[in-house]
Design a protein that fits this description.
Blueprint lengths: L4 E7 L5 E7 L2 E6 L2 E5 L4 H10 L9 E5 L5 H9 L5 E5 L3 H8 L15 E4 L3 H7 L4 E6 L19 H10 E11 L4 H9 L3 E8 L8 E8 L1
Helix pairs in contact: 1-2, 4-5
């Protein structure tokens, strides 16, 4: 039986204990002792990029990613976009950025080394407020979605005020794409109430079309 090996630990700004761990060949990020993400399950993170960036312009697109995770969404975005794109990443936990520059880097072929990427160690809500009418796509993979459990403060991001802030940070015709471990009809209603055209996609957690089903909300301004 393979034991869980803790490689590093750090505190998130809200005090939650984050840990980078290894189990056999699998790398995990734990939050408060519970698995938050795994190197074995990233198909839906890649789908977030593919679906969220489907309508971005070919020339000089600007994309904001909220939540770095293990870098799989960022890698998929970079593979989709042109060489003149700008991709901003807002990650609340500095340790997650460090892990992506270290042991997690090879998983997604070191996306932080790409010259198109700008990393901000801060709450994605701050990045949204500071950039009105800026982004062609905003991809949110923060906590476990609208029913957040890791950081209670993330709940505000999915409330009416947070949705309005995200809407205002989009260019006309831009897309807000939100990853969620579960479906949330209430969140879909809030998006529509904010004036978005909403589509909900159910995707598999693994790239081989297996694993649990996750939800991606696609909201077009």
């Amino acid at each position: 039986m393979k034991l869980l090996e803790i490689l590093d630990e750090a505190r998130a700004p809200d005090g939650t204990l984050l840990a980078l761990a290894r189990h056999d060949r699998e790398l995990l990020i734990l939050a408060g002792g519970r698995p938050l993400m795994s190197s074995r399950m990233h198909g839906s993170e890649q789908a977030l990029a593919t679906l969220g960036c489907a309508r971005v312009p070919r020339e000089a697109p600007r994309v904001l990613i909220g939540g770095l995770g293990m870098g799989f969404t960022l890698r998929a975005v970079l593979d989709l976009l042109s060489t003149d794109a700008t991709v901003e990443v807002a990650e609340l936990a500095a340790a997650v950025v460090d892990w992506n520059r270290g042991p997690l880097g090879p998983l997604a072929d070191h996306p932080l080394r790409d010259r198109r990427v700008r990393v901000r160690v801060e709450d994605v809500a701050s990045a949204l407020r500071e950039h009105p009418a800026t982004f062609d796509a905003i991809l949110l993979d923060v906590d476990n979605g609208p029913d957040a459990f890791t950081a209670g403060g993330n709940a505000a991001l999915y409330g009416e005020a947070g949705i309005a802030t995200a809407r205002d940070a989009l260019r006309p015709g831009g897309t807000l794409a939100v990853w969620s471990a579960w479906e949330s009809r209430a969140f879909g209603r809030r998006l529509r109430h904010a004036g978005f055209e909403v589509r909900v996609e159910r995707v598999r957690g693994r790239a081989n079309r297996r694993g649990p089903r996750h939800t991606i909300f696609l909201a077009r301004r």
